[in-house]
């Protein structure tokens, strides 16, 4: 058994879906039957493996925890040729903040909660519990790898793994203009006077945002409508006193995008909710 195959089986046994990497840190390409997705397979955000092809096809979506697949003939051949092992962080419920240089590491130490750290060739991977959308170049030298992305396996790392913080979620979300300038654009009440702030403690607002995230996350159908109604409910309760911040909106946008909504759909839903409530300046 090759060392890479042994590592892959060990990862799978711990719920981490692996895949083989070729030289250059890239996945194996699609086989002829799956070239250009002719097989009809489409990588899913939740279920790795878009088709029944026995080869390690479709990049990150090939990652699996099924030992029968990992140890099958086509995969064993791939492991023998592999230059390394990768894994699908989102499939394991993880997020990797990939810090590519010393400046990025310094930024993370100053702005992110301490968590498990894996040393890389040029920097560090910071691992958090929780999955989210992936995005490259969220800051100079910083990538976020989770859903629909792969990361190299470089060992278990050191330190206790922390829960995914809002500071990381916010990196990938472009908040709507109304949220970015909340006091100027969301502060006017329906009566034309500034509303009394009901947030006597930060817990009141935080609990409302958390409940809204949960409502979006648990939606099984009518996602567009659920996102709009949730934005409407949040803004009707919290949108008149100017307390909503970019971070709050980013949390809602992240939850919606994890359900498949685009940034444009989120922005449209947010703007429509503002208009319905009369919270935009006309």
Q: N- to C-terminal separation? A: 69 Å
Shape: globular
Which class do the helix and strand fractions yield?
alpha+beta
Query: Mind summarizing the main beta sheet?
Result: 6 strands, mixed
**How many beta-strand segments?**
10
Low-confidence stretches: 42-50, 177-194
Spell the H/E element sequence: HEEHHEEHEEEEEEHHHHHHH
Would you tell me the overall average pLDDT?
A: 83
- Give the fraction of residues assigned to helices: 25-40%
Taken as a percent bin, the fraction of beta residues is 5-15%
Radius of gyration: 22 Å
Total DSSP helices: 11
Please provide a written account of the structure:
Strand 5 (116-119) and strand 6 (124-129) form a beta hairpin. The protein is built from eleven helices and ten strands. With 282 residues, it is of the alpha+beta class. The strands form two sheets. Strands 4, 5, 6, 7, 8 and 10 form a six-stranded mixed sheet that branches. Strands 2-1-3-9 form a four-stranded antiparallel sheet. Helices cover 38% and strands 14% of the residues. The chain has helices at 3-13, 67-70, 73-81, 102-111, 166-169, 177-180, 182-185, 202-217, 223-238, 246-258, 263-277; strands at residues 18-22, 26-27, 84-87, 94-99, 116-119, 124-129, 135-139, 142-145, 151-152, 162-163. Helix 8 packs antiparallel against helix 9, helix 8 (202-217) runs parallel beside helix 10 and helix 9 (223-238) crosses helix 11.
């Amino acid at each position: 058994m090759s060392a890479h195959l042994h590592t892959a089986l060990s990862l799978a046994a711990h719920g981490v879906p692996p895949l083989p990497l070729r030289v250059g840190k890239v996945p194996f390409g699609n086989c002829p039957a799956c070239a250009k997705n002719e097989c009809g397979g489409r990588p899913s955000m939740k279920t790795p493996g878009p088709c029944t092809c026995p080869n390690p096809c479709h990049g990150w979506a090939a990652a699996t925890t099924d030992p029968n697949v990992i140890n099958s003939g086509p995969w064993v051949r791939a492991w023998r040729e592999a230059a390394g092992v990768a894994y699908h962080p989102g499939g394991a419920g993880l997020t990797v903040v990939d810090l590519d240089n010393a400046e990025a590491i310094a930024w993370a130490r100053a702005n992110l909660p301490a968590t498990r750290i894996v040393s890389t060739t040029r920097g560090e991977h910071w691992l958090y519990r929780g999955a989210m959308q992936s995005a490259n170049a969220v800051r100079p030298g910083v990538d976020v790898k989770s859903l629909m992305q792969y990361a190299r396996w470089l060992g278990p790392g050191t330190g206790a793994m922390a829960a995914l913080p809002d500071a990381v979620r916010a990196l990938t979300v472009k908040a709507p203009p109304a949220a970015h300038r909340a006091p100027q654009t969301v502060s006017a009440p329906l009566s034309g006077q500034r509303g009394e702030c009901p947030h006597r403690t930060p817990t009141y607002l935080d609990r409302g945002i958390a409940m809204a995230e949960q409502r979006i996350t648990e939606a099984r159908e009518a996602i567009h409508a659920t996102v709009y109604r949730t934005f409407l409910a949040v803004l009707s309760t919290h949108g008149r006193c100017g307390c909503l911040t970019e971070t709050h909106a980013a949390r809602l946008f992240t939850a919606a995008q994890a359900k498949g909504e685009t940034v444009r759909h989120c922005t449209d839903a947010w703007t429509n909710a503002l208009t319905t409530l009369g919270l935009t300046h006309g």
